[in-house]
Design goal:
The complex is a heterodimer.
Chain A: E1 5-10, E2 15-19, E3 25-27, E4 35-40, E5 44-49, E6 54-58, E7 66-78, E8 82-84, E9 95-96, E10 116-118, E11 123-124, E12 127-128, E13 131-132, E14 139-141, E15 158-169, E16 176-177, E17 189-195, E18 207-213, E19 218-224, E20 233-237, E21 243-248, E22 254-258, E23 263-267, E24 278-282, E25 291-296, E26 301-305, E27 309-314, E28 325-338, E29 344-348, E30 354-358, E31 369-372, H1 378-391, H2 405-423, H3 434-455, H4 464-473, H5 476-486, H6 498-507, E32 520-524, H7 547-558, H8 565-581, E33 589-590, E34 597-606, E35 614-625, E36 631-641, E37 644-651, E38 657-661, E39 667-672, H9 674-679, E40 683-687, H10 690-707, E41 719-722, E42 728-731, E43 751-754, E44 760-763, E45 769-772, E46 778-781, E47 801-818, E48 822-824, E49 835-836, E50 857-858, E51 863-865, E52 877-880, E53 897-912, E54 914-916, E55 922-927, E56 941-945, E57 950-954, E58 965-969, E59 975-980, E60 986-990, E61 995-999, E62 1010-1014, E63 1022-1027, E64 1032-1036, E65 1041-1045, E66 1056-1061, E67 1064-1069, E68 1075-1079, E69 1082-1083, E70 1088-1089, ...
Helix pairs in contact in A: 2-3
Chain B: H1 5-13, E1 16-23, E2 36-41, H2 51-58, E3 70-73, E4 76-77, H3 84-92, E5 99-104, H4 119-138, H5 141-145, H6 148-159, H7 163-173, E6 188-192, H8 216-223, E7 237-240, H9 252-258, E8 266-272
Parallel strand pairs in B: 1-5, 6-8
Antiparallel strand pairs in B: 1-2, 3-4, 3-5, 7-8
Helix pairs in contact in B: 6-7
The chains are: A mainly beta, B alpha/beta.
């Protein structure tokens, strides 16, 4: 669970955030003024302040928000001047946009608001489609507009070059005013709601922001996305009535409440039209009481009516945004908000506390119960520490007596507020709608509230605290009269004087007690990433009575249990006991003789002979002690072969890997031995249940480790790898693995599983291991072992955490064109299934496609995927002449078939020795392989964000492997692969397939200074790079492995690419220039394998390319449905090397 | 790097007491019986691990002189239904090793000891302890959900000294809902040396109503206040579990999970501090 915030505003307009890992509301100190409402997304929070302006608070991130401005300089050749700025009258502007239509000189670019700053000056882009241009960045063409090339030809009459300048958004973690459009916005805003981030992934960070003005008009903010967080402009949305409040969900739901109490639903919201097209009206849930408030999520709508009753709308989804009926819910609320994952937050009308709806799951969207969030505010905490220090001087316990006073007082205060609103001077609204009057009213009283606040000079940090007390404990009218009597503070802040301080503190009988209950006016969960499984510590009631204990428990958590004295004592005494009672008596006979232990079970086995199919077998593991006291065992599989009873067996000490295998219906795993690796034919087994499979895998894994004397966490020299399923394996390198000339064959390497789920893993020789999940979350290895299916003994107790991963399952909708009906889902008899997998060979409909394995559960509905390579049209279609062919994103005359991809997300929850490194999603990571000299030495770590930004991690040491922050390294285009070698050489691959070398990277200058462009091998697009001590290897999109020739210390970029091998999926080069790859199409004696771990033999200083491959584990599935597809993605510690 | 809690389980399981068995001098023998030396598992039961001892002494005895075998230490008959480690800690914790046990083949002290005609009696005793412990920890839910073969696995694990086999199953008995912070009640027994009274066993929760973890000290304060040394006092008692003295601030739940015997009880011995 990433750390995120729940936002709320109290009745005094103060904005608070509550962290999902926190235990108190932290006041947003930056807020200079009071706020009426806030609406949060994951990366930012919008608010309406009491000056009626809209403010934006963008959360700081290591990844800066940079906006690339570009303009083109155009020139034409003439015989006199050569190329010059003198253009023909019919030509484009001398400075223009890419189309030539817009005049854009360099000085016409202005910063859009005071929240921006320029990063540098304008410069010429020297890179053209992955190739460096000649000096000056000019590209040439015959005429405007035409195709440009980087080479000047005899007929090149015009040329142009691109100028770039970046501006950076600087107003991070602060409330920045959105410049208002006075011309079109006559009245102030009264409500605001953001959402829509799930409508489309492009452009990145796109948000919909809806606002309501006091006159009941609705406005839509255009153009908000990551690089333009403020958006562009307000567009008015036509309405069937006057709106009082609006709610926008994460996806395509938008509902609003009309003055008359009906609800309106926005229809026609889509990727192409986030603003929607029209409104539909839905009547209030109750015929005589109108709705006052609405909140929508992905698939839910919650409504509050004027009588504070709560309603849930049944049957709401994308296809039916209006839903089908109302269900009355328990609870009386003044407002309600739906956050991420359809989780619900509300403010109770009774005590003004924030409530969380517990038990909201995708199958039970209405949840189970309301639970109050009872954490204190930060100033409450500071008060409590004050109480503790004070209580030393006072008789014990006297402060802790008024515990249950707050709730009843709170409701008093509210009713008083209501009275106040009726006759208050600044009251604009006479509606009985509770949320409206609270806002107006509290704002109008805010001046009063601030007065004494400003006066409390004695303890400024706590100035707000005692005030809460005053306003919530004391009847409002009474408080005012009390203040009137003091004569110092009543109407405005300017009457406040120092004398009021004394009066104030004296007037308060008990300035620190009471007010444990903040009164909330508004809550927004849009940025709060929780679901029904999240462990939140927000509900453990902390009242004054238990304050002492809570402080105690806090101090306990400061010293982790692992370092507690009692634990140390037990460890020490146990080893002392062993010394005393056993060590001197080792020659004594043991009372119990070791014997054989057998575990049996039933399983299915993918039989060895044709036709291959699953047959029932008996399975047994016999464990016994070997001659040296080490444990060993034999596996038996008893089966029937034409009525004849037979068995096959495998020695536990010969098993090299046990792999869970992806299968959507069976719980299958494969057992490899060196022999079976050579055959490319493992023992494949299926257990009846997932639990049974996990029990067996855990037991077999422990047996294998025992037989090899392996226990505890992997060593720092361990080789890490990932299967295509996402399972994580480690192998302890044998001493002879790089021996020359006869290294240990890599089919003998023993791999054991570690809990967790990753797509990429990278490690180095000081034990720093980074991983990246399928959902691009970055993870850091904690030093533990086990987790996942390895429970109990096979797992460390500490350092195991919950890990989740999300990935998409894709299916294709295929159509053929026919002259009469156009495109239909009726194909030719020879065609592929109309709903299929990517190959077209297997039918995959939306209804029958299951998550990849029973461990995964669906977390979204099927949706059209527009992010397919080659592009799509507006409906997601890709066209081709025939199946199968190369597809393109637009229709031509020659196209007779089309397809589009549908995606559905599924989620896995497991445990493992991994901790999240929030918040930036990554697509690649690399760690300097060399051993650091000490545990405090910085270890360079580089990464690529999932958007293609290059990042350099600061503060990574062996002791703090997660580091501290990201340093953004600017590039002119997105990147996709990166690798750092033993001598700090950083190589990277850009999305256009060309390579880059980063110059001047050193410990003093960890981010280097500039990129050197290195063209890819002819006609190939590179996709991955790996750097060793001196070697640089790359893999291109066609599976070719390339070696960089001519790399020398003085010329680190090298001179040319040399082809090494084909059918390569991934390469990993070690610190001694060892080369390992994952190869496809490796021939075994029984079968062909994909995803095979291969080791390059005879790699030597004078022969860094090596000679031939040695093949390790890997398997090819003969049948898609039944067999594993097994890919290892290798990473190994580089510096000490396995030879040590 | 700090050792892992899992290591504690191993240390507890593989605890051994070096023991010297000598035949009672009153037994009739054909020739002189030599002492027999054995490493006894602390977590097992005397009658379960002394087949070799019996065989050894029977070699020098006539069959008609042999009745049910029983053990005695310095005049105290040793109850086979207490774990071996408890017997040692309770009666001999500060004595010189090896532990010297006297073997008897007649005059079975019926008033002090239970008969143990076969290992099935030990199995029944062991399983009933496990069930009683689970009744306290999980209202018997875990043990009742287990199958017969699972129960057998626990017993066979103990009988054959198979740590992995035993813990593969026993870990299920050690689970509890995270939000509750521990078991329902802690299965414990407090034994007192120099007392004829049986052990103390009462209901005690691992977590206070306010959510704080109770410690070993909290338990003793409630059950056996005399065992706690107050400030300024001389230490009169040692609180011994598996031959070690955990600090009184050790959380009880942790102790129950890591220092319980295979029968799932936390056996705590309170013995007088040696005078020297």
């Amino acid at each position: 669970m990433p750390v995120s915030l729940l936002w709320a505003v109290d009745v005094y307009g103060r904005v608070y955030g509550l962290s999902t890992v926190g235990q108190q509301w932290d006041q947003c100190r930056d807020a200079q003024m009071e706020f009426k409402r806030v609406t949060a997304a994951q990366e930012c929070c919008w608010g309406i302040a009491c000056d009626n302006n809209i403010y934006l608070n963008v959360h700081a991130s290591d990844l800066s928000i940079r906006y690339q401005e570009e303009t083109y300089e155009n020139q034409r050749w003439n015989p006199v001047d050569g190329f010059s700025e003198r253009l023909l009258p019919s030509d484009r502007w001398q400075w223009s946009d890419v189309t030539g239509l817009q005049h854009q000189p360099l000085d016409s670019f202005q910063l859009p608001s005071s929240s921006w700053e320029w990063e540098g000056d304008w410069y010429v882009d020297e890179n053209f489609e992955g190739e460096p241009t000649e000096k000056g960045g000019w590209t040439y063409a015959i005429d405007f507009p035409a195709t440009y090339t980087k080479d000047k030809k005899w007929n090149s009459c015009v040329r142009r070059r691109r100028w770039l300048r970046y501006r950076r958004y600087k107003a991070m973690d602060t409330w920045a005013k959105i410049p208002s459009q006075h011309t079109t916005l006559p009245d102030p805003f009264s409500d605001i709601s953001c959402g829509g981030w799930e409508i489309s992934e492009e452009p990145r960070g796109r948000l919909s922001l809806w606002a309501v003005s006091l006159q009941g008009k609705v406005w839509f903010r255009e153009g908000i996305y990551h690089q333009n967080p403020e958006g562009a402009s307000w567009e008015e949305v036509l309405l069937p009535g006057e709106v009082v409040q609006i709610s926008c969900g994460p996806a395509d739901l938008v509902w609003a409440v009309l003055w008359e109490g009906q609800l309106i639903v926005r229809e026609g919201i889509s990727r192409d039209c986030p603003k929607g097209a029209s409104w539909a009206i839905v009547e209030s849930p109750s015929s005589d009481v109108g709705a006052t408030h609405v909140a929508v999520g992905n698939n839910v709508v919650w409504v509050v009516t004027k009588d504070n009753k709560v309603w849930f709308r049944r049957g709401v989804n994308s296809h039916n945004p209006c839903g089908s009926g109302w269900i009355s819910m328990v609870g009386e609320m003044i407002m309600i908000n739906v956050g991420q994952n359809d989780q619900v937050w509300a403010i109770s009308s009774e005590d003004r506390a924030v409530y969380f709806r517990q038990g909201v799951t995708s199958s039970e969207l209405s949840g189970k119960t309301w639970k109050a969030i009872t954490v204190p505010r930060d100033r409450d905490r500071s008060q409590s520490s004050l109480i503790l220090s004070l209580s030393v001087f006072l008789s014990a316990g006297c402060f802790f007596c008024g515990e249950v006073r707050a709730p009843s007082v709170a409701s008093d205060a509210e009713s008083d507020l209501e009275k106040g609103s009726a006759d208050g001077p600044g009251c604009l609204v006479t509606s009985t709608s509770p949320d409206t009057f609270v806002d107006e009213d509290t704002i109008s009283h805010e001046g009063d509230a601030k007065a004494p606040c400003a006066g409390v000079a004695l303890s400024p940090s706590q100035s707000g605290g005692p005030l809460d007390t005053q306003w919530s404990n004391v009847d409002l009218e009474e408080a005012q009269s009390q203040q009137a009597q003091t004569g110092a503070v009543l109407d405005s802040a300017d009457t406040c004087s120092l004398s009021s301080v004394a009066t104030y503190t004296l007037a308060m009988e008990d300035p620190y007690g009471g007010d444990e209950h903040p009164l909330w006016a508004w809550v927004s969960g849009g940025g709060c990433s929780v679901d029904s499984h999240s462990q939140l510590s927000w509900f453990n009631s902390v009242n004054t009575a238990s304050l002492v204990q809570s402080v105690q428990s806090m101090s306990l958590s400061v010293s982790p249990a692992q370092t507690a004295a009692w634990r140390k004592q037990i460890f020490e005494q146990l080893s002392e006991r062993t010394r005393r009672e056993i060590d001197n008596f080792k020659h004594y006979e043991q009372a119990i003789e070791q014997s054989v232990w057998v575990k049996k079970g039933s399983m299915q086995w993918w039989r060895d002979w044709k036709p291959h199919k699953w047959i029932d077998v008996h399975f047994a593991l016999e464990q016994f002690s070997g001659p040296e006291g080490n444990k060993d065992g034999i596996l038996f599989i008893y089966y029937n072969y034409y009525e004849e009873k037979k068995y096959l067996h495998a020695f536990i000490n010969e098993v090299t890997i046990l792999v869970p295998v992806l299968n959507d219906s069976k719980h299958t795993f494969a057992i490899y031995t060196p022999e079976r690796t050579k055959q490319r034919w493992p023992i494949r087994l299926a257990a009846a249940t997932e639990l049974e499979m996990h029990d067996w895998l855990a037991l077999l894994s422990v047996s294998c480790c025992d037989s090899r004397g392996i226990q505890g966490p992997p060593s720092k020299q361990a080789i890490w790898s990932i299967t295509c399923k996402g399972d994580i394996f480690v192998s302890e390198p044998s001493p002879g693995i790089e021996a020359v000339p006869y290294p240990t064959p890599c089919d003998q390497m023993f791999w054991r599983q570690v809990g967790g789920h990753l797509r990429i893993v990278e490690c180095n020789s000081v034990g720093i291991v980074w991983g990246i999940g399928f959902d691009h979350t970055a993870w850091i290895y904690t030093g533990g072992y086990g987790g996942g299916l390895f429970q109990g003994l096979a797992s460390s107790t500490d350092n195991i955490y919950t890990q989740t991963d999300v990935k998409s399952v894709y299916i294709y909708e295929n159509q053929r064109w026919n002259p009469v009906t156009g495109y239909t889902n009726r194909g030719l008899p020879t065609d592929r299934y109309m709903w299929s997998d990517a190959s077209g060979l297997h039918e995959c409909t939306r209804a029958n496609t299951k998550p990849p394995s029973p461990q995964w559960t669906w977390v979204s509905e099927w949706a059209i995927d527009y992010s397919v390579s080659g592009g799509t049209d507006r409906e997601g279609w890709q066209y081709a002449a025939d199946f199968p062919a190369s597809y393109h994103g637009y229709k031509t005359m020659k196209d007779f078939v089309r397809r589009r991809r549908w995606a559905r997300k599924c989620k896995l929850t497991t445990t493992g020795p991994w901790q999240e490194v929030p918040p930036i999603a990554l697509s690649d990571v690399t760690i300097l392989p060399c051993a650091a000299q000490s545990t405090v030495d910085m270890v360079p770590v580089w990464a690529i964000s999932n958007k293609g930004d290059v990042l350099c991690r600061l503060g990574v040491t062996a002791l703090t492997p997660a580091g501290s922050s990201w340093l953004h390294v600017g590039t002119d285009q997105p990147f996709k692969s990166i690798s750092i070698g033993a001598a700090s050489q950083v190589w990277a691959i850009a999305r256009d397939g060309s390579a880059f070398y980063r110059g001047s990277v050193s410990p003093q200058n960890p981010a280097g200074d500039c990129w050197y462009h290195i063209p890819s091998p002819a006609k190939q697009k590179l996709k991955q790079v790996s750097v060793g001590r001196t070697s640089v290897f790359t893999v291109d999109e066609n599976g070719n492995l390339w070696y960089r020739q001519g790399v020398t210390p003085s010329y680190p970029q090298g001179s040319s690419w040399e082809h090494v091998s084909n059918n390569v999926r991934k390469v990993s080069v070690g610190p001694l220039d060892q080369v390992w790859i994952i190869a496809d199409k490796v021939q075994g004696s029984h079968s062909l394998s994909c995803g095979t771990v291969c080791h390059r033999l005879a790699v030597q200083p004078m022969q860094p390319k090596g000679q031939s491959w040695d093949y390790g584990i890997g398997v090819k599935k003969p049948n898609m449905k039944l067999s594993p597809f097994f890919v290892l993605i290798l990473s190994f510690p580089k510096c000490n090397g396995p030879t040590k | 790097i700090m050792a892992d809690d899992k290591d504690v389980l191993r240390d507890v399981w593989f605890g051994r007491i070096p023991t010297c068995f000598t035949l009672n001098q009153d037994e009739v023998t054909e020739r002189e019986a030599e002492a027999y030396y054995l490493l006894l598992p602390r977590v097992s039961y005397l009658t379960l691990v002394t087949d070799k001892v019996k065989k050894h002494f029977l070699k020098v005895m006539r069959t008609e002189d042999v009745e049910e075998m029983w053990f005695e230490y310095e005049g105290t008959p040793l109850k086979w239904h207490y774990p071996i480690g408890v017997l040692f800690d309770l009666h001999a914790s500060n004595s010189v090793l090896p532990w010297s046990i006297t073997v008897h083949f007649k005059n079975f002290p019926d008033r002090d000891l239970l008969h143990c005609p076969s290992s099935s009696v030990i199995e029944a005793h062991f399983m009933s302890s496990i069930k009683e412990a689970d009744a306290l920890k999980h209202k018997s839910q875990v043990v009742n959900d287990m199958q017969k073969k699972d129960h057998k696995q626990l017993w066979m694990g103990l009988q054959n000294d198979k740590f992995d086999q035993f813990w593969a199953m026993n870990r299920k008995l050690m689970e509890y809902p995270t939000e509750e912070g521990g078991f329902r009640y802690i299965p414990f027994r407090i034994y007192q040396a120099m007392s004829d009274r049986p052990f103390i066993q009462k209901l005690f929760r691992p977590v206070s109503p306010e959510g704080n973890a109770y410690t070993l000290g909290d338990l003793l304060k409630e059950m056996y206040p005399a065992a706690i040394t107050n400030d300024g006092e001389q230490k009169r008692y040692q609180v011994v579990i598996h031959g070690i003295e955990p600090l009184l601030e050790t959380p009880l739940q942790w102790l129950s999970e890591h220092l319980s015997h295979p029968d799932n009880f936390l056996h705590i011995c309170v013995v007088p501090t040696p005078s020297d």
